[in-house]
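Quarterly update, task 2.4: flavin-adenine dinucleotide-bound model.
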Amino acid sequence: MDFSFTEEQEKLRKEVHDFFVSELPSDYRPGLSGRRASNEKQFEFWMGVQEKAGAKGYLAPGWGKDSGGLGLSDMEQGIVMEETGYWGAVWPATMGLRVCGPPLHVFGTEEQKKKFLPPIAKGEVIWYEAFTEPDAGSDEANVSLRAVADGDTFILNGQKHFMTAPGPADFLYTLVRTAEVVPKHRGLSLFLIDAHAPGISYSPLPTMGNFTVEIFFDNARVHKDRLLGELNRGFYHAMVTFEFERTNTGNPAAQKRSLEELVQFAREEKRNGKRLIDDPQMRELLADRAIEWVLAYLGGWRDGWFFSQRRRLGSPPPSTSAYRGKVDAEPRAKALADTLGLFAQLQRGSKYAKFGGMGERAWQTSRSTHPAGTIEVNKIVLAGRGLGLPRVPAKFNKEIAKSLQERD
Ligand SMILES: Cc1cc2nc3c(=O)[nH]c(=O)nc-3n(C[C@H](O)[C@H](O)[C@H](O)COP(=O)(O)OP(=O)(O)OC[C@H]3O[C@@H](n4cnc5c(N)ncnc54)[C@H](O)[C@@H]3O)c2cc1C
């Protein structure tokens, strides 16, 4: 692997850097922002910056120019994502950009690509990834939102829950059951659904990690031309979707920025008359976080590099950085809470909160490792696809499913 970037690539990084410097307020502290809009005003602000970034092609730089991108390589896309993460931007359009758009390139018809990709790349629309259901989380094959063919349409009845909702949705990228078959995963299909179609309703479901919603389908109709890929092959298309979802260079960059803010805070903050940065416990915490960051940075670029070489090397191995991010979240949040002491309990917005209330925020989000697969599911993927270990025999899977139901 070549660790250095070319002159052209550094120029691109500088351009994106300058974009954020000119668009964000001078007193904005990305490392203390919590990385997500937490009220309507912030949402409107980020939608505005997002559209400007979209006009420059920075939201989907790796997509072709016809699709609203810049036609750049995977590595250059990684650079733009890295700079975006460093500036604390989690675009409201993230699901469309990272989750729904890439498989649309692979499985979409020409009409679907033409209709859906440019508005995503320009930051004009919000997509939800609508997979999880009350009885189908890790066990995706158990999806039961039912779609029954009726003329040129399918009629949908059922429920989804825990959809990450950065704002009101325009479209839903939805896994539905189109056939009652055994094995169950061969009866699923993916649909691109208008979020406001009659028969679809929403209910808020706030979680510790994020704002999510439940979605109810009551005789909602979707036209057959909104089927993505092949009928009853949706499970396989969904697995490809997860591969895109778990690859990232933006998160390590965000981690770097918040570490820089923490170092600055430790330099300025005094406890018992001494600077925090001179406290051995604080120094250990900062050293641990710096090591974590280097690992996340290298992992993110390793994933990106494999991705860029996939034509030569075949399918990339599963991402280790997503897994590390989940596993490291809790000890990191605990160390921060220990450092801030009782101040760590104060939420963002409290005038007494220290370090922007990030101690409390980090603790909450560290409890929410579910999005894009739980820690256990990530381990299963790494063991199977990463290390080539044999799959868990189907009879044990049944036992696991049974014990989960008993526990509920
Ligand atoms: C903040 C947040 C945002 C989310 N955003 C979205 C979204 O945008 N779109 C979407 O579709 N979903 C979303 N989800 C849902 C998320 O994908 C699911 O919560 C996740 O897949 C786990 O499913 P579950 O909650 O049904 O838990 P379950 O699958 O019931 O798992 C319960 C526990 O059992 C463990 N477990 C399950 N199966 C096994 C096994 N075979 N071996 C070992 N352990 C196992 C799990 O790791 C977990 O600890 C979100 C969830 C959260 C919390």
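Highlight for this quarter: The mean pLDDT is 90.
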